[in-house]
Amino acid sequence: GQVFKLEDYRPNDYLIPQTNLTFRLSPEATVVTATLTVQRRDGVAAAAPLVLDGDGLTLKRVKIDGKKAKPADLLVTPDQLTILKPPARRFQLLIETELAPAGNEALMGLYRSSNVYCTQCEAEGFRRITYFLDRPDILSVYTVRIEALREEAPLLLSNGNPGDKGDMGDGWHYAVWHDPFPKPSYLFALVAGNLGEVADSFVTMSGRKVELGIYVERGKEKLAGYAMDALKRSMRWDEEAFGREYDLDVFNIVAVSDFNMGAMENKGLNIFNDKYVLADEETATDADFANIEAIIAHEYFHNWTGNRITCRDWFQLCLKEGLTVFRDHEFSADQRSRAVKRIAEVRTLRAHQFPEDQGPLAHPVRPRRYREINNFYTATVYEKGSEVVRMIRTILGADAFRGGMDLYFERHDGEAATIEDFIKVFEDASGRDLSQFALWYHQAGTPNLTVSSTHNAAAQEFTLEIEQSVPPTPSESRKRLMHIPLAFGLIGAGGKPVAFSSVEGASVENGVIHLRKRRHMVRFSGVTERPAVSLNRGFSAPVTLSVEQRADDQFFLARHDSDAFSRWQAFNTLLTDALIAAFREFLGGKQPVFATRLTELAGSIAGDETLEPAYRALALSLPGDADIAREIGKNIDPDAIHAGRQALALAIATANAEAFSGLYHRLANEAAFSPDAASAGRRALRNTLLDYLSLLPGGAALAAKHFQSATNMTDRAAALAVLAHRHHASPEANKALAAFEKTYSSDPLVMDKWFQIQASVPGPQTVETVRALTRHPAFSMANPNRVRSLIGTFSSANQTGFHRADGDGYRFFAQTVLEVEKRNPQVAARLATALRSWRSLEPGRQAKAREALLSIANAENLSADLRDIVERTLA
Ligand code: HT7
Ligand code: ZN
Question: How far apart are CA 572 and CA 569, in angstroms?
Answer without folding.
Answer: 5
